[in-house]
């Protein structure tokens, strides 16, 4: 796991502890459909960043940040399965 993804995982854990999210995707008891919805939302943000770049609003930092969030959510979900 990259350092950026690890930092994002910590950020997500902190947000969960602050009650910003009802579940943490690393929680094996969180519903799978919730985890899928979170992952799908993050992938949607990657799509928006790509489309914005294609149509004249490039934001490579945002795309990279969104990809890191996708990776962190996927890592968290994988952690829940181990």
Describe the structure.
With 82 residues, this protein is mainly alpha-helical. It has one domain. The radius of gyration is 13 Å and the shape is elongated.
What is the element layout, followed by pairings?
Blueprint: H1 3-17, H2 32-54, H3 60-80
Helix pairs in contact: 1-3, 2-3
Number of separate strands: 0
Helix content: over 70%
How many structural domains in the coordinates? 1
Unreliable segments of 5+ consecutive residues: none
For the termini, the CA-CA separation is 16 Å
What's the total helix number?
A: 3
Report the order of strands and helices: HHH
Main β sheet profile: none
Beta-strand percent range:
under 5%
CA-based gyration radius: 13 Å
Q: Provide mean pLDDT, rounded.
A: 91
Q: Tell me, briefly, the overall form.
A: elongated
Helix/sheet category: mainly alpha
Features:
82 residues, 0% strand
In short:
This protein has 82 residues and is mainly α.
């Amino acid at each position: 796991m990259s350092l950026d993804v690890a930092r994002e995982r910590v950020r997500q854990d902190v947000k969960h502890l602050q009650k910003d999210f009802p579940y943490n995707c690393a929680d094996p008891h969180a519903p799978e459909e919730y985890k899928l919805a979170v992952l799908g939302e993050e992938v949607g943000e990657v799509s928006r960043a790509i489309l914005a770049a294609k149509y004249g609003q490039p934001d490579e930092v945002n795309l990279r940040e969104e990809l890191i969030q996708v990776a962190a959510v996927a890592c968290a979900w994988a952690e829940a399965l181990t």
